Amino acid sequence: MANPKFKTKQAKIILGSSSMARRKILAEMGYDFTVMSADIDEKSIRTEKPEDLVLALAEAKADAIISRLGITGHKEENAQPTLLITADTVVVYEGMIREKPSSKEEARHFIKGYSGGCAIVVGSIVITNLTTGTKSRGWDRSEVYFHDIPDEVIDRLVDDGVTLNVAGGLMLEHPLTAPFVDTVVGTPDGVMGLSKSLTEKLLEESLES
Question: What GO molecular function annotation could you give as one example from this UniProt entry (predicted)?
Fold first, then answer.
């Protein structure tokens, strides 16, 4: 059992992600953290179920960062814990898994499909306690329902280029997208890539194991 005197706010936090949305969410939660990004070949990891895929990708990101840090053993039990947060998100549309668009044409195709429809967002979080070597993991799911999105708005979103950097080309918080979101069943932070409630739960678990 980890030393109970440590709370999540006392742990050293590393966010293993280059996502600005994840940085913003973790900062909103009141955490101080450093950032490292994992350079992995995401296309080389394939599974049929989106839940399995996002967990496998988050685990691979954690392993890549641990390798970069050169961690081969673990510290004494009472050392200040260092927690590494990695995550991944995909969009499921009509049963098909969508990751980041490979081109502006694909981004336009993705967004046009959401118009008047629904996108399912599946996200994972893996928290690795670098002090003990244990991992806590979980996933969450949200549904996003859209009003009709005019073609000119889709064109502006695609020309902006930012949709190429997010799963399924879906950026809920973008000022061009937000007016056309009808209902979110789940949490906006989960859709943006880091569920606050799941993050808190896993952070606490990682200090208890």
Answer: nucleoside triphosphate diphosphatase activity
